[in-house]
Amino acid sequence: MKAGKKMRANIALLSALSLAAFYTAPTAAWADEVVEIAIAPGVLVVDAETDCTEDCDYTESVTVHAGIALADACADGGQDCSVDLCYEATCLAATAVFADSRGELVAKFSIPDVIAMLLPEGVNAYYDLTLQGETLAGEQFSGTDEIYLKEYSTTPAKEPIGPLGPGTHASK
Fold it and tell me: What is the mean pLDDT of residues 109-113?
């Protein structure tokens, strides 16, 4: 008789723990908003001219389009905005943030800075870069896309997808 009561108590305890895990797990998983991003260009070429990190005369930049409204992420039309592009533990601050024609966030990053961030890892390789920031409501958002860093005159390991390069955005 005592074994039956103990068994029912154990079942009740396991049921309560299972329900508690079920109700608390989604809140932890949904705390950060995952947004779709597209990085352009999808391929950066390293050669004698682009292998500099200071005093480079670049007019172009790495552009990241994010599937989040600029008004949700930044105040003052992008003037007051903290958006970073990260590879592992190294992050770069955006040089410019503004809205595209749909009102979604667009961030620009210096090409030499992106190359300098990835160059120690090696060329002729794909890298997952993550755009991360915080909304005006205080929630974190992030999105990841792929970029290829290649040495001049080499062929990528896999063919670029779409007009923007190897990123996964064009394959969805």
Answer: 91
